[in-house]
Amino acid sequence: DIISKCMNLGIMVSINQRLEADVIELVVSEFNYEVEFIGVEDAAEMEDDDEEDDLNDLKARAPIVTIMGHVDHGKTSLLDHIRNTNVIAGEAGGITQHIGAYEVKLEDGRAITFLDTPGHEAFTAMRARGAKVTDIAVIVIAADDAVMPQTKEAISHAQAAGVPMIFAINKIDRDGANPEKIKEQLASMNILVESWGGKYQSQEISAKQGLNIDLLMEKILLEADVLELKANPVKVATGTVIEASLDKGRGYVATILVQNGTLKQGDMIVSGQNFGKVKAMYNERNQRSEIAPPSTPVLILGLNGAPQAGETFKVYADESEAREKAYQRGQILREQGMRAKKHITLDEIGRRLALGSFKELNVIIKGDVDGSVEALSDSLQKLSTEEIVIKVIHKAVGAITESDVTLANASDAIIIGFNVRPSMQAARLGEQEGIQIKLYSIIYNAIEEIRSAMEGMLEPGVEDKVLANVEIKEMYKFDKATVAGCIVLEGKIARNNRIRLVRDGIVIFTGELGSLKRYRDDVKEVTTNMECGLTIKNYANIEVGDIVEAFEEVEVKRTL
Is 126 part of a structural domain of the chain? Predict the structure, then answer.
């Protein structure tokens, strides 16, 4: 009926064809119906309008607290103190590049779930996601600094999400710390803390010394009591994806936060266009767990792809229904992608000819986790100017592969790797084809370098030159050290080189060698195809198959 109606209207269609919105409206009106168009989010919200929870089933749950604020104001140090572990040592340049989720049990038996969000402006979208998931926002401001642009941005995210804020004024042990100045600056933004007669709680702390952190925790719990947070642990789980990455040994790994219901191993979950059975769950300390009640962050294995950070997930009882939902969403997203692709128009050709020097920089971005890939992609696209447009033609999580190099060759692109490495074959192919592969571990550097290249002012800078690749073949554990038995695949490794440990194409550790030996003798260097034994200073988590990459920093004249 629909095809014949379309033909009467002079539109030739086949049964599998998708119609444009105006054609749909026209055809629908012929059948005396009305049509309403909805987005992917609206569709997801309609699905989520499930049955109301029985009041008897609702149980108190732990508050979800996001720690926000400007870069280097001490968010991660505060979390470290609370968790008694050291995250910051593993972050490049001491900057948090991922969202971490941690559950902390207090002495009185109550629990708080913390989300740590990055402070760098490139991570705005990740911070906004943090604000959407959370119950309470703790805004960290350094007492020896000021209320910075990213602090204001974090405050506006929290206000937009309608989340109560607590201000933690950090670094009060520093010389030149002036907490009153910070309160004054907040007051000028129309935010009055309690000591100034307002409604926002604030606490002066020192994350490094551990001063007053117990008082901050009390204030968080007080705020949580006022909110009366409850969830229904009996129903099927729903929640949010915090981060996702590709692990070669385990497949796609997603960090998720259960917000309602209880997630069990073996549940069928759908997140965006990805679905899968939960094969295994781990808490943030990497211990296996069978169930995850509300407000629990867990790492899950078993999805068929890496869902976008900030995507919601839902458990389905029926596998075929879950699969159908995921495919349906994938279809809508593909459709949106097709429609959003900008094809060149005559006006555009005219504009380019008038400029005379129009250039397009095609970029392929590969990163270790989805959040960083998104942040880098958004930041680079914002660098586009009248003369130079930056186009991200492909972005994904995982190591740089041969197919990325082939795509770069076909589309004349450069490849940007963030905390990842190309496989040996990909690096070799890149060299043959003359494809530039730029590797970074700090997001500022990537943005800065591309901005400089666009302004034609790439100053000579320091770049890492890889001197050797060494594969770990055996492991020997002794009391004081873990020794790796290795073979040098290419290049020459020296005792004083700096090294990186690469596992499945992803950089896990950067540091120095503890020792380098041939048989029982200490040696200064080992060359290609020779075997050697080595230890890594202050690091023991090595596995057979890891690659040790020796590098040095050299001054180079840079080009893009």
Answer: yes
Q: Considering the domain boundaries, does residue 121 fall inside one?
A: yes
Q: Tell me which residue of 37, 34, 112 sits closest to 78, measured CA to CA.
A: 112
Helices (H) and strands (E) in the chain, counts: 14, 28
Average pLDDT, integer, range 129-138: 79
Ranges of H-type helices in 441-487: 443-454
Last residue of a domain, one of 436, 458, 480: 458
3-state secondary structure 15-34: CCCCCCHHHHHHHHHHCCCC
Residues 6+ apart with CB under 8 A from 18: 335
- Phi and psi at residue 187, to the nearest 5°: -60, -35
List the domain range (segments joined by +) for residue 8. 2-37
Cβ–Cβ under 8 Å, residues 414 and 366: no
User: Is 472 or 92 the better-scoring residue by pLDDT?
Assistant: 472
Would you say residue 48 lies in a domain? no
Cα 234 vs. chain centroid, distance in angstroms? 30
* 3-state DSSP assignment of residue 287: coil
Across the chain, mean pLDDT equals: 83
Angle formed at CA 508 by CA 506 and CA 510, multiple of 5 degrees = 120
CATH number at residue 543: 2.40.30.10
In 189-267, where does DSSP find H-type helix? 213-227
Q: Tell me the CA distances in angstroms from 537 to 139, 161, 553, one per residue in order.
A: 36, 45, 19
- 383-396 per-position pLDDT tens digit: 887 777 888 888 98
Name the nearest CA neighbour of 89 among 75, 72, 102, 76. Answer: 76
Q: Among the listed ranges 11-15, 23-27, 301-305, 353-357, which one has the minimum average pLDDT value?
A: 353-357
Burial of 508 from C-beta contacts in 10 A (0-12 / 13-18 / 19+): middle
The Cβ-side half-sphere exposure at 326, using a 13 Å CA radius, reads 24
The answer on 164 and 27 residing in a single domain is no
- Which segments of 383-520 does DSSP mark as H helices, in order? 402-411, 424-433, 443-454
Per residue, the 3-state secondary structure of 49-82, as one string, reads CCCCCCCCCCEECCCEEEEEECCCCCHHHHHHHH
Q: How far apart are CA 133 and CA 123, in angstroms?
A: 16
| Letter string b/e over residues 309-332, b meaning 16 or more CB atoms within 10 A of that residue's CB | bbbbbbbbeeeeebbebbeebeee
pTM confidence score: 0.65
Rounded to whole angstroms, the Cα distance separating 363 from 372 reads 15
Are 73 and 170 a contacting pair, CB within 8 Å? yes
Q: What is the pLDDT of residues 524-552, one digit of tens each?
A: 999 999 999 999 998 888 899 999 999 98
Percent share of the chain, pLDDT over 70:
86
CATH of the domain at 212: 3.40.50.300
Question: Which region among 14-18, 64-68, 323-327, 471-475 has the lowest average model confidence (pLDDT)?
Answer: 14-18
Domain boundary among 276, 308, 337: 337
Strands 296-303 and 498-503: unpaired
Are 142 and 222 in the same domain? yes
284 shares its domain with 314 = yes
Which residues on adjacent β-strands are paired with residue 105? 111
